[in-house]
């Protein structure tokens, strides 16, 4: 069985809780720690990121389990919790972009709308999820600055050139439905392959020059 990333958490406690919750509900999963990962823009490093992985076909069931579990905490929230001041449109945006919010805020948005007389049906939730998947399916926009730097580092035999080329060529992202796709466009992946080729050529050239010439 192949597992893909379901949720990422900044602390071990949250990830472990979700992993145990899914296990109790007969959803097999993996709980791993990533010591250091680069995001798809190469602009930041996430340290000690904790990840829960499950089978792609279990995503919908896992969403339902976590939503039900989270609803138990809604009554305990303080009245000054920031979401209570959100407009209906802002709450709907949370539902539309679930991947950008935590499970508690997502469940609270649905319940707040319900209390305001706006019922969000399962069909509407599924439609919003499918729409979001199509939006995220579009390739990430890579920075021409990073591509240029990749070529420069590759020419001078720098290891960072290999890193940029490798990420452009192989980096993938997980969609809310569990599907894994390449993060960058075909053109950007071609740049990544060329950077790797250029880096390999000049690395071998410098090694030959240093040890033979």
Compact description:
The protein has 213 residues and is an alpha+beta fold. The protein has helices at residues 12-24, 59-71, 88-96, 103-115, 122-136, 144-155, 159-170, 186-211; strands at 3-9, 29-38, 45-55, 172-174, 180-182.
Instruction: Name the average pLDDT.
Output: 87
Shape: elongated
Given the helix and strand composition, which structural class is it?
alpha+beta
Q: Can you count the beta strands?
A: 5
Count the helices. How many?
8
- SSE run: EHEEHHHHHHEEH
Question: C-alpha Rg, in Å?
Answer: 22 Å
Any overview of this molecule?
The protein is an alpha+beta fold and 213 residues long. Helices cover 53% and strands 16% of the residues. The chain has 8 helices and 5 strands. It has a 3-stranded antiparallel beta sheet, covered by helices on one side. It has a two-stranded antiparallel ribbon with strand order 4-5. A hairpin with a 6-residue loop joins strand 2 (29-38) and strand 3 (45-55). Helix 3 (88-96) crosses helix 4 and helix 7 packs antiparallel against helix 8. The chain is elongated.
Key traits:
213 residues; alpha+beta; three-stranded antiparallel sheet; two-stranded antiparallel sheet; 8 helices; 53% helix; 16% strand; elongated
What does the secondary structure layout of this molecule look like, with pairings?
Blueprint: E1 3-9, H1 12-24, E2 29-38, E3 45-55, H2 59-71, H3 88-96, H4 103-115, H5 122-136, H6 144-155, H7 159-170, E4 172-174, E5 180-182, H8 186-211
């Amino acid at each position: 069985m192949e597992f893909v990333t379901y949720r990422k958490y900044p602390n071990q406690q949250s990830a472990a809780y979700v992993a145990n919750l899914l296990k109790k509900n007969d959803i097999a999963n993996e709980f791993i720690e990533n010591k250091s990962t680069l995001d798809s823009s190469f602009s930041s490093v996430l340290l000690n990121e904790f990840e829960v992985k499950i089978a792609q076909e279990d995503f919908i069931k896992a969403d339902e389990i976590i939503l039900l579990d989270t609803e138990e905490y809604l009554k305990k929230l303080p009245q000054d919790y920031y979401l209570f001041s959100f407009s209906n449109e802002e709450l709907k945006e949370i539902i539309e972009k679930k991947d950008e919010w935590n499970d508690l805020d997502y469940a609270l948005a649905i319940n707040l709308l319900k209390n305001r007389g706006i019922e969000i049906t399962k069909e509407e939730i599924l439609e919003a999820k499918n729409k979001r998947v199509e939006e995220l399916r579009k390739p990430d926009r890579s920075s021409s600055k990073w591509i240029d730097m990749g070529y420069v580092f590759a020419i001078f035999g720098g290891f960072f050139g290999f890193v940029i080329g490798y990420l452009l060529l192989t980096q993938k992202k997980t969609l809310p439905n569990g599907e894994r796709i390449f993060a960058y466009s075909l053109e950007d992946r071609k740049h990544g392959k060329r950077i790797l080729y250029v880096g390999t050529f000049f690395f071998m050239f410098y090694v030959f020059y240093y040890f033979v010439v």
